[in-house]
Amino acid sequence: MLKLKRILKAVFLGSWLPWLLLITFTAYILFAPVRGIIDPVKVPQDDAFLPEEDVQWWYWTGHLESKEGKKFGFEICFFTFDSFFFFKDQLIQAAITDVDDNSFHFKEYVRTFSLPDEMPNSFSLSSDKHNKITAVGSGGYDTLHSEVDNYILDLKLEPVKDDIIHYEGGPHIYRMGGFTYYYSRVGMKTEGTIKVGDTAYDVSGITWFDRQYGELYKAINTGWQWFAIQLDDNRQIMLYDINGAEDRMESYVAITDAKGETRDYGPEDFTVEILDHWTSPDTGIVYPNGWKLNVKGEEWIVEPMVKDQELQGQHHFWVGPEYWEGASLVKKPNGKVIGKAYVELNGFKKE
User: Fold this and answer.
1) What's the mean pLDDT in 294-315?
2) How far from 296 is each of 45, 259, 265, 271, CA to CA, in Å?
3) Handedness of CA 336, 337, 343, 349 (dihedral sign)
4) Between β-strands 141-148 and 133-138, what pairing exists: parallel, antiparallel or unpaired?
5) Helix (H, G, I), strand (E, B), or coil: what is residue 232?
6) pLDDT at position 265, please?
7) What domains does the chain contain, in order, with CATH numbers?
8) Omega before 44 cis (within 30°)?
C-alpha cells in the first residue's frame, strides 16, 4: 500500500508540474508587454521606466566645484535588463572622482528579479533598501543621492537647454543588430553638497544626462568611445565613436550651440586620434587615455583628470562589463583649457 501511494504521488507530481510550467509561461506570453519598436521619443513621458524595452538606462555624469575650489567628477547610472523570461535585473553604479586627491571611488549594486516601478512621466530609482544610490525626477528636474566610500553626494538638477533627441526620435536600427531610442540633456544646472568624511562642501556645476533604451545587447558587446563635452563657450558635443571599422557608419557627432540648436555630423566629418594609453593594474585592460578630436576642421585635445577611473564589475554570475568612465579636461592644441568632458570606454580587452 505504501509503495502504491509513492507511485501515485510521483505520477501526480509528474503530471502537474509540466502543466504548471505551461500555464505560467502562457500567462507571461499573454500579459507581458509587447517588446520592440514603440512610438518615437516623447519627453517627459519617456523619462519613465518603459516595460516594452529589453534594455534601458538613466545616466548622469557631471563636474562639480566647491566654494573652496575643490573639484570633483561624479557618475550615477541605473541599468535595467528585462529579457529572456527570467532576466529581470537592475545594475546600479555610482562613482566619485576626487580630482585634487587624484583618486577614484566606485560602488555597485545588483537587484535581481527586480524592476523599477512604472510611473507616469517620471522615475524613482533606488539601489537597495538603504537607498545608498537614488534618482528621482521628471523633465530634467532631478534629485540625486549617492554614498560611495566616505563621499556622500546630494544634488538638485534642472535643465538649461531643450532636450536633444538623437536619431530624430528613433527607432534607430543598428548595423550590427538591435535598435535604440536615445535622448540627452546636455547642460543641466547642478547644485548641492558633497560630504567627504566629516567635512561637507557646497558644490555647483554642470551635469550631462543620457536616456537610452531598446535592444542594446549587440551595441554593448561591440563597444565604443563616447565623449560628452561641455565647452566654456556654452557648446555641448556628443561624440559617439563605435569600435571596429566594419561598424564605423554608426559613429556620429551632435553639436549643440549656445542657442540650443543641434546639428548632427556623420563619420566622414570627424576623426578620433588616440594619443596615449593606460593599462589597468586590476583587470589588465588597455584603455585609450588621451585623444585628439577633429570635427569639420575644429580640433580639441581631451585628457583625463585622473588616470585610473575604471569601473570594475563586482557582481558574480551576472553579465556586465568592466569599463572606463572618467572626468576629463578639454584643451585647444596650444594647451589652453576650454572645457570639460566625460569619456566612456566600453568594449576594450586585455592585450
Assistant:
1) 93
2) 35, 20, 9, 9
3) positive
4) antiparallel
5) coil
6) 97
7) 44-346 (2.40.370.10)
8) yes
End-to-end C-alpha distance for the chain, whole angstroms: 68
CB atoms within 10 A of CB 128: 13
Please give the Cα distance from 26 to 11 (Å, whole number). 23
- Gap between the Cα atoms of 283 and 309, Å rounded: 12
What's the rounded Cα separation, in Å, for the pair 344 and 350? 17
Contacts of 311 (CB under 8 A, 6+ apart): 93, 95, 106, 108, 322, 323, 324, 325
3-state secondary structure of 235: coil
Per-position DSSP letters for 176-219, written without gaps between them: TS-EEEEEEEEEEEEEEEEEETTEEEEEEEEEEEEEEEEE-HHH
Residue whose cell numbers read 586620434:
273
CA distance 7 to 2: 9
Task: Check: CB of residue 93 under 8 Å from CB of residue 311.
Answer: yes
Torsions phi, psi of 176, nearest 5?
A: -80, -5
pTM of the entire predicted model: 0.89
The pLDDT, as a whole number, for residue 22 is 45
Query: Which residue type is seen at 148?
Result: V
Give the mean pLDDT of 172-185.
96
Which residue is associated with the grid cell 542594446?
A: 216
CB count within 10 Å of CB 332 equals 13
- H-type alpha helices, the chain: 2-31, 217-222
Question: What are φ and ψ of residue 174, in 5° steps?
Answer: -75, 145
More confident residue, 19 or 242: 242
Comparing 29 with 151, the larger pLDDT belongs to 151
- pLDDT, residue 316, reads 62
Percent of the chain having pLDDT more than 90?
Answer: 82
Q: Taking 50 as the threshold, does the pLDDT of residue 21 lie above it?
A: no
Place of cell 508540474: 17
The CA-based dihedral angle spanning residues 42, 251, 336, 186, taken in that order and rounded to the nearest 10 degrees: 10
